[in-house]
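The material for today's practical consists of a large collection of protein records. Read left to right, the backbone structure tokens trace the chain's path through space. An example says more than a description, so a record of this kind follows:
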Amino acid sequence: MSYFVVDVEADGPIPGDFSMVSFGAVLVDENLNRTFYGKIIPISEQYIPEVLSISGFSREETLKFDDPFETMLKFEEWIAKNSKGKPIFISDNNGFDWMFICWYFHHFLKRNPFGYSSRRISDLYCGIVKDTFAQWKHLRKTEHTHNPVDDARGNAEVLLYMKNELELKIDLR
């Protein structure tokens, strides 16, 4: 199995009605240097300016981004190239990130290389420390900038911390 931490920036709360603006992925290994970055042209006329502003892009900029089919195809190819066995999707907020990535894969490619499930970093951490209110974001080394590759890398750093310091049993070969 190979774990990929993924982060999504969007211009609204749900896929289809709104658009995924950009996303980043990091293969979880000791180096965290294998990354993917995608920027996707809007698929909807709808967007929420306040939500889009979090990404750091303007609507005009997003209208020059890449084709979603081509971007998702490149992402799928990158996942396959960097996977040893089944790829596992993990994120900070998989209720949001997974929803967009899964929808885009199925909508544009009619398949999802991650299958039908994902994992959430917070739930792993809370389970390890046996506290459902435990906070973990202070364990990131990379600043949370809303560049999705930076954010994915910071979250992957926490996963490595859980493996190395808290003895999380996870195979990252």
